[in-house]
UniProtKB/TrEMBL annotation:
It comes from Campylobacter porcelli. Pfam families: Ribosomal_S17. The keyword Ribosomal protein applies. GO terms for biological process: translation. Part of the 30S ribosomal subunit. Belongs to the universal ribosomal protein uS17 family. GO terms for molecular function: rRNA binding; structural constituent of ribosome. Keywords: Ribonucleoprotein, Ribosomal protein, RNA-binding, rRNA-binding. The gene is rpsQ. One of the primary rRNA binding proteins, it binds specifically to the 5'-end of 16S ribosomal RNA. This is Small ribosomal subunit protein uS17. SUPFAM superfamilies: Nucleic acid-binding proteins (SSF50249). One of its GO terms (cellular component) is cytosolic small ribosomal subunit. The keyword rRNA-binding applies.
Amino acid sequence: MAVEMKREIQGVVVAIAGNKTATVLVERRVMHPRYHKFVKRFKKYLVHDEKNELKVGDTISAVECRPLSARKKFRLQSVLKTGVE
């Protein structure tokens, strides 16, 4: 039986999107194909927060899981750093 590798993302909580859900902004750096400079690319993910412990500004780590709703496919793994608020 093969063990699946789950995707792991790290990002900053930008909004609390209802009960047990947080919106996380993930930044990745990619090299521009022509200019060979690193540019930032951003994407937002919905993360399941079972205990409602997240606040805006927290830096978190989330892991991929089964689909919990139409857009929510990650669950909270750990809070790496708490926000300022």
